Amino acid sequence: MELKICHMYPDVLNLYGDRGNVMCMTRRLQWRGIEASVTKLPIGAGKSLSGFDLVFIGGGQDFEQQVLLEDLHRGKDREIISAIEDGVTFLTICGGFQMLGSYYETYDGKRCDFIGALDLCTIGSKTRMIGNYKFQCGPDAGGSVVVGFENHSGKTRLGSGVKPLGTVLAGYGNNGEDKTEGVHYKNVFGTYSHGPLLPKNPELCDFLLKTALERKYGRAELAPLDDKAELFAHDEMCAKL
Ligand code: GLN
Question: What is 105-121 written as a DSSP string?
Answer without folding.
Answer: E-TTS-EEE---SSSEE
